[in-house]
UniProtKB/TrEMBL annotation:
Domain Pirin C-terminal as annotated: residue spans: 193-293
UniProt xrefs under Gene3D superfamilies: Jelly Rolls
Protein name: Pirin family protein
Positions contributing to Fe cation binding: 76, 78, 120, 122
SUPFAM superfamilies reported for this sequence: RmlC-like cupins
UniProt record similarity statement: Belongs to the pirin family.
Organism superkingdom: Bacteria
Membrane-spanning residues: none
Organism: Streptomyces hoynatensis
Annotated Pfam families: Pirin (PF02678), Pirin_C (PF05726)
Gene Ontology terms, MF aspect: metal ion binding
Lineage: Bacteria, Bacillati, Actinomycetota, Actinomycetes, Kitasatosporales
Entry keyword set: Iron, Metal-binding
Amino acid sequence: MSNLDLKPTPTVCGGAGDSGPVHDVQPARQVPLGESTVVRRLLPHLGRRTVGAWCFVDHYGPEDIVDRPGMRVPPHPHIGLQTVSWLHAGEVLHRDSLGSAQTIRPRELGLMTAGRAIAHSEESPRARAHAPVLHGAQLWVALPAEQRHRAPSFEHHAALPEVTGGGLSATVILGTLDGATSPGTTHTPLVGADLALAEGTDTRLPLEESFEYAALAMAGACEVDGVPLTPGALLYLGNGRRELPLRATTPASFMLLGGVPFEERLLMWWNFVGRSHEDIAQARTDWTNGVRFGEVHGYDGPRLPAPELPATPLKPRGRTP
């Protein structure tokens, strides 16, 4: 997933901090993505920049794309992060500069680790009629200092572990939830899960007390720790919880994101996660000059040009204002 803003503002994030249990609903920004898709950008936000190592969250759809091209995100670069592709409906064809070409379907994990440098594109398949509805989330995970220069890689996991009981069915996307562990590679203690709640659900989900958490409502209406959520809302829950009360009077689903509060200061600009202005500037120069990131083959269209850097140097700061 790319940030297609041609005038991106620098985002500072990272740094240790404990909030304890809280209820903080984060508002979304409507952001155009590619040629025809609009997403709800929920993280980073002015008041909350990371949840564990999760540093970027876009929610899109459900969108009727029967007579539209659907997602079309041109080749673009990344450093210092992992991208997580997660679908409830539709398909996304991922291509990258490693030579990967993988169609990602609902509730399959597409996990790309950028490390020192990678480029990729994402689009609704064109070789045949694509699915009529597109609905999902795109997320980034910041890599810790000792892993941010690692070799890039791509993983696709069609089968993921599940946790069920009490009207709840949870697919573990990354990390571990209630004893079930995803095969996806992680580099910090974190969890990502997709939870479906049946009508009449009234249950409690065990949590890691040291993790901070957020809930992204995907469909239906539910209550998370007593807070009503509707699709597209992100509820930041803080840390210090051993369990999470869940209720639903109609079928509903949400994504649970969590992790140990990220202690490092980060600097995020455009599609790069670095530690300094020099990190970002060098990555932009390398992408513009066609070095370091490789080429994405098969996408029908030009790659995405890098926007101009701001006139003043970029500076990393703490994880919250």
